[in-house]
Amino acid sequence: METLYLAILVGTLLVLMAAFSSLLAFRFGTPLLLLFLCIGLVAGTDGFGVQFDNGQLAYFVGSLALAVILFDSGFGTSLHAFRQAAAPAITMATLGVLLTAGIFGLMACVVFDLQLIQGLLLGSIVASTDAAAVFFLLRIGGIAVRDRVRSTLEVESGSNDPMAIFLTIALVQIATGTDGSSLPGIDILRLFGMQMGLGVAIGLPGGMLIVWLVNKLDMERGLTPIFVVTLALLVFSATGALGGSGFLAVYIAGLYAGNRSIRAKTAIRRFQEGMTWLAQIVMFLVLGLLATPSQFPAIALPAIALALFLVLVARPVAVWLCLSPFRYTKRERLFISWVGLRGAVSILLAILPVIGGVEGGMLFFNTAFIIVLVSLLLQGWTISPMAKRLSLVVPPRIGPVQRVEVELPGSANHELVAYRVVKDSPVLTGERIPRWARPSLVVRNGRSMRYQYAGRLQENDHVYLFISPNFPRLLDRLFASPAPVEKDDTEFFGAFTVDPKRTLGELDEAYGPGIVPANSRETTLAEYLERRFGGRAEYADRLRLGPLEIIVRDVDDRGEITSLGVSLEPEPLARPLPDFINRKTARSALDRLARRRRNRRKAEDRQAAE
Length: 610
Hints:
Distance between the termini: 81 Å
GO cellular component, one term: plasma membrane
Organism: Pararhizobium mangrovi
GO molecular function, one term: antiporter activity
CATH architecture of the largest domain: Up-down Bundle
Subcellular location: Cell membrane
Protein name: Potassium/proton antiporter
Largest sheet: 5 strands, antiparallel
C-alpha cells in the first residue's frame, strides 16, 4: 500500500514540476516540450533513480495520450484552414513522410552501418513532426506568419503521424520476419490501403456520431466534455481493433466535430485544452523516464550528425519536392522546412523496435531520443529569428480582443458573447454594431443596464450580444484595440496605398510604362491579384510588377481585397538562400573547402621550406 502512495506522490510531483516549468518557458522562450523531457530524464534511472523500464506500458500510455492530442488538434482546426492548406499539407503528410524516411534512412545506413530495412525503420521513426511546440513558441514570441503557412503547418502536423506510425509498424514486421509474406511490397500496399481506408471510413461517421449524440442526449453539462473524449477514444480503439489507423480516425472525427454546431462547444474546447496539456506532460514524462542517458554518449556524435542531416537536408528536400506544385515562395518553403520539430511521436515510435524484438532495438530508441533533443534545441529556439530573417513576420491586423462566449441552453441557433470595450477600439470612435448582432445588456461600473438606455459606450464597459455562432470573428475588429504600429510596418506594406478597384492600365500610367501585361490593362488590381494567387488573395500577399511590389493590406470576411499597398523599393533578402542543399550549393561548398585545403597545404609547404 505504501508503494502505491509513493508512486502517486512521485507522479503528481513530476506533473506539478512540468506544469510550473511552463512559467519558465513563457518567460525565456524555452521549448516547453524540451522541459517536460528533461524533467523525465532528471527523475529517471540516471537522475533521482526512479526505475521505469516497461516499454509496453509506455507505448500504451503514449498512444492514449497521442489519441487525445490528435482529437483536440482536429477539433481546433477550422474548416477554412483545412481547405486552405489541405492539398499541400496532406501531400507533405504522406509523400513528404515517405521522402523524409527514405532520404534519412539511406544516410542512417551509412552512418550506423545498418541494413536497408533498419535504416528505413529509423527514418520512419523520425519522419513525423510535432508542431505543438512550434505554435507555443510562435505565440510567446509575439510573431505572426501568413495564414496559409500557419494552416499548412497545422494540418500537416495533425495528419502526418498516422503515416509515420503505419510505416514504422510495417517495417518492424518486415525486420522481425513476422509479416509472413514473400512479397512484402504487396502486403505493405494492402496494409496501407486498409489502415488509411478504415481510418477515413470510421473517422468521419465517428465524428458524425459524436455530434449527433451530444446534441440528442440531454446530458449534464459537466459530463458532456468527458463523454466527447470517451467517444473519441472509442473511435480510436474501434478503428485500431478492425485493422485501421486509429490515429487518423480520431483526427478526422475531431475535425468534423469541431466544425459542426455541437452543444456545450465552449466547455468541450476548454476541457480538451486541459486534457491535451495533461496528455503532453504525461507522455513526455513517461518517455523521459524510460530513457537511460548514460547510454547516449556511445552514439552521441553519429546521432547528432543524423539530426543535423534531418534538419538541413532530408526535411528541406522533402518539403521542396512536395510544395513545388503549389503556390509557395522560396522563403515560405524554407520556413516550413525549418519548422519540422521532432517530438513525442518519434520517441513513442522508437519503442516499437524494442518491444517488437528488432535486433539492436535500443539503438533506435536512443538515436531517436537524441534527434528529438537536438531538434528541440536547434529549431525550437530559432523559429522566431528564422521567421524574421526570412521576412515572413506580418504585422497584426487587430490588437488584443477581450471576449467571453456563453452558450445558451435549448436549441436556439444563437450564443451570448460578452466583450469588454478596450481603449481606442472602433466602437468608441463611432463605428456602429451590425444589425445582425443583438446587443442586450451593458455592464458599467458594476451596474447593469439595457443597451438601448446605455448611451454611448465607454471604455471598460462589458457589452453582451446575442449572435450566430459563426459570427464572433466579425465583431472582433469593432471591440479590439488598434493593432500596434511598428516601425517596419510601413516598409512591409509600402509607403503608398492604392484602390484595389483601379485598373492595371491606370497603375501603368502612374508608375510605368510597360510594367503590366498589355492584355490585362482593363483588369482591376483586385481581380489580377486574385487570379495570380489561385483565386483568393490573403492578407500580406505580395506580387512583383516590374519595379513595384503590390502588397495586400487587408481583406474582408468574404476574402475580397479592400486595401492595397505599393512599395517602390522592394528589398530582396539580405543574402540569397537556397531551398535546400542542392547540387549547385553542395558543389560550391566542396570547391571552397578544397581551396582552403590547397591554401593550407601551400602555407605548410612554405613554412617547411623556410
